[in-house]
Amino acid sequence: MTTDIDNATRFLFDETYQMWRSDLEKIFRIGTRNTNGGCNLSSCILVLIGIESFSRFFSKKKSDKHAFEDFFKCYYPDQYHGRMKHIYELFRNGLAHYYYPKSKTKYISSIKFVVNRTDKRVLSLTSFKKKLDFYRSMCIQLVPDVSRPIILVPQVLFLDTVNVMEYLREQIKDDGDLQKLIVEKYLEINKELFMDIESNKVKKQQ
Q1: CA-to-CA distance for 17 and 25, rounded, in angstroms?
Q2: Do 121 and 33 form a contact (C-beta atoms < 8 A)?
Q3: How far apart, in whole angstroms, are the C-alpha atoms of residue 166 and residue 21?
Q4: Could you say which DSSP state residue 76 is in?
Q5: Cα-based distances in Å from 203 to 189, 192, 195, 198, 200
Q6: Which of the four, 59, 83, 154, 182, has the lowest number of CB atoms within 10 Å?
Q7: Cα–Cα distance measured from residue 108 to residue 150, given in angstroms and rounded to the nearest whole number
Q8: Per the omega criterion (within 30 degrees of 0), is the bond before 144 cis?
């Protein structure tokens, strides 16, 4: 007999996360064929919205933005801490609603694909994995020098998120508090999805 935690972990890890990971691996593979960073829009949107959806399962914060920021604070390397509110506002909202990063008066934002100097091709995920700490140091540049741009390298954010999600997949097996949180969030999200489906049915019937 399946339990709530079985349903929650299957929905989160075996369905949502695995689909997100598989799609992005294919997108990044396509991107390596281009010298200018192909698929930058699709990869950035999918990376950020995926992280946003995962964060709802692992944070008690109510708003999506605060859950997103809290998720990074709790599970990601130090380089991300204190920066993700701006990343959410500039990149997640910018790309999802306007199709390009937003900028504020004192912040400049841009997407960066790292290109190999030899063959002028975008680096593969394997290349990023070998020197992830190095490329992460390039990933988010912010205060104290606000004249420097906020740079998002989607492959780095993707690989760090894979590491986080694989860690949490193992952690949840023996962590009762984490299991309780996951189930609570799963039931909440499942209810929202069901309500959206019912709402759409009503609209079609009218």
Answers
A1: 12
A2: yes
A3: 11
A4: S
A5: 21, 16, 12, 9, 5
A6: 83
A7: 6
A8: yes
User: 151: helix, coil or strand?
Assistant: strand
Q: What residues does each domain of the chain span?
A: 4-186
Q: In the beta sheet, which residues pair with residue 150? A: 109
Amino acid at 48: L
Residue 149's Cβ-count burial label (10 Å; 0-12, 13-18, 19+) is: middle
Please state whether the predicted TM-score (pTM) of the whole model is above 0.90.
Answer: no
The C-alpha angle with vertex 169 and arms to 164 and 175, in degrees rounded to 5, equals 105
Q: 150 φ, ψ to 5°?
A: -85, 120
Distance CA 72, CA 55 (A): 8
User: Distance (Å, rounded) from C-alpha 24 to C-alpha 20?
Assistant: 6
Q: Is 122 helix (H, G, I), strand (E, B) or coil?
A: strand
Q: Count the residues in the chain.
A: 206
pLDDT at 110: 66
Residue owning tokens 């598989």:
22
Q: pLDDT digits over 148-200, tens only? A: 666 778 889 999 999 999 999 999 999 999 999 999 999 988 888 765 544 55
* In the chain, beta strands by DSSP E: 109-111, 150-152
Q: Are 154 and 111 within 8 A, CB to CB?
A: yes
Distance between CA atoms of 69 and 37, rounded to whole angstroms?
27
